[in-house]
């Protein structure tokens, strides 16, 4: 019974955050089955990511900067971006800028949820430690997803090919950099890491919420909804 409770506590943050970001889609919510499918893709990429990371660790060793920006954030963000670009980017359901955020958050939280479950199983996890992980790693993955999805949305609906390429590059490089800074702080070994982490998380949440509002504001369905309200 205790194991079931701990597993529930490990899964709940990812599901709750995904629900939150899904409900923030103001004008044309995505089909639930599509969001669940992308979440499950995040679950499925855990194994290949772990295999690649293990190989890179054996090759390069555990150097803090390399681990933070290449082995950890590099591998994870590149694979998430690759899956989103090849499966979701050209999908017919990706029809407004905010959709990029929904799907990027979904795949990120699928990955983060499995990571959290593995932590709960293989580490002496308490509810306090799982709460801490909900506030930091799980929400961190969601916010990296917001950044990735925001720029994927800008790339999808950019008016010029050059801007599309620029936003695609930003959709990978910026969340990778954010994730790398996060991992570097966690792995710094300093006893004062939390004093660096708190400003970073505040920055990520404030920036993430602003990007969500901007993506919603550029929805083509916003004007359609206003026209319908005027006609009524």
UniProtKB/TrEMBL annotation:
InterPro entries: Peptidase_PrsW_arch/bac, PrsW. Signal peptide: none annotated. Pfam families: PrsW-protease (PF13367). Its EC number is 3.4.-.-. It is found in: Cell membrane. The keyword Repeat does not apply. One of its GO terms (molecular function) is peptidase activity. Keywords: Cell membrane, Hydrolase, Membrane, Protease, Transmembrane, Transmembrane helix. It is a multi-pass membrane protein. One of its GO terms (biological process) is proteolysis. The chain crosses the membrane at residues 6-23, 35-53, 65-88, 100-122, 134-153, 192-209. Involved in the degradation of specific anti-sigma factors. Belongs to the protease PrsW family. This is Protease PrsW. The gene is prsW.
């Amino acid at each position: 019974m205790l194991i079931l409770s701990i597993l529930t506590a490990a899964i709940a943050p990812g599901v709750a955050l995904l629900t939150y970001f899904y409900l923030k889609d103001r004008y044309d919510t995505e089909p639930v089955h599509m969001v669940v499918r992308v979440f499950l893709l995040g679950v499925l990429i855990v194994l290949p990511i772990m295999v690649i990371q293990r190989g890179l660790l054996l090759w390069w060793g555990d150097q803090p900067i390399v681990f933070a920006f290449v082995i950890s954030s590099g591998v994870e963000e590149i694979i998430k971006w690759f899956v989103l670009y090849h499966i979701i980017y050209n999908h017919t359901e990706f029809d407004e800028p905010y959709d990029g955020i929904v799907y990027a958050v979904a795949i990120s939280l699928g990955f983060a949820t499995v990571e959290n479950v593995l932590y709960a199983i293989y580490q002496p996890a308490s509810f306090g430690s799982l709460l801490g992980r909900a506030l930091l790693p799980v929400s961190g993955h969601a916010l990296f997803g917001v950044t990735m999805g925001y720029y994927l949305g800008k790339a999808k609906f950019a008016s010029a090919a050059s801007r599309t390429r620029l936003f695609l590059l930003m959709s990978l490089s910026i969340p990778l950099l954010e994730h790398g800074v996060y991992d570097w702080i966690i792995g710094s070994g300093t006893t004062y890491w939390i004093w660096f982490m708190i400003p970073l998380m505040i920055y990520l949440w404030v920036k993430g919420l602003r990007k969500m509002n901007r993506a919603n504001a550029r929805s083509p369905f916003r004007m359609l909804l206003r026209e319908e309200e005027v006609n009524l």
